[in-house]
Amino acid sequence: MLFWHVGFSIFIFRYVYKDYGADLRYLAGGALLPDFVDFLFNIVGFKVAYNQPGHTLIFSVTILVITMILTRRKTAFRNNFLLVAIGIFLHQFLDFMWLNQHILFFPLPFDSVETTSRGFLILLLQEVAGFSYLYSKINTVEKADIFFREGLI
């Protein structure tokens, strides 16, 4: 789910934080990071947290704490890596991870309260919504160039 996570992470970030000067490439990278981590763990063959260690709260909080400890205040480096951490949290929010508590709160013994899974049509509608938002913001070659060079929309 590429466009859903990237598009709506940017939408939520801009709506909540109103920071129009942030480098959204880092936010997009953070929004895709949990799926990338899970993909790597599955390739290597680790069976941790129901094959989704990138979707655990431990992962997102660890990234945030490491960022806060290892970076200096009021630097662009810190701001960019905070965007990665925000992107990870937004990914978990957009995946409705609070319904999969056995994954989100791993290794604590929680049961999942999710009764149904999202079907193909819902996933398709989410992707179309994410793509539509991104297309409305990046609909010319010049805007795409600015986004990929500077991270601005």
Verbal overview:
The protein has 153 residues and is mostly helical. The protein has one domain (2-150). It is 67% helix and 0% strand. It has seven helices and no strands. It has helices spanning 2-17, 24-44, 57-70, 76-94, 101-104, 120-137, 141-150. Helix 1 crosses helix 4 and helix 1 (2-17) crosses helix 6 (120-137). The protein is globular. The model has no long low-confidence stretch (mean pLDDT 89).
Topology:
Elements: H1 2-17, H2 24-44, H3 57-70, H4 76-94, H5 101-104, H6 120-137, H7 141-150
Oligomer: single chain
Write down the Rg. 16 Å
Count of all domains: 1
Main β sheet profile? none
Q: Look at the helices and sheets and give the structural class.
A: mainly alpha
Overall pLDDT metric: 89
Brief overview:
By secondary structure, this protein is mostly helical. It has one domain (2-150).
Which features characterize this protein?
single chain, 153 residues, mainly alpha, 7 helices, globular
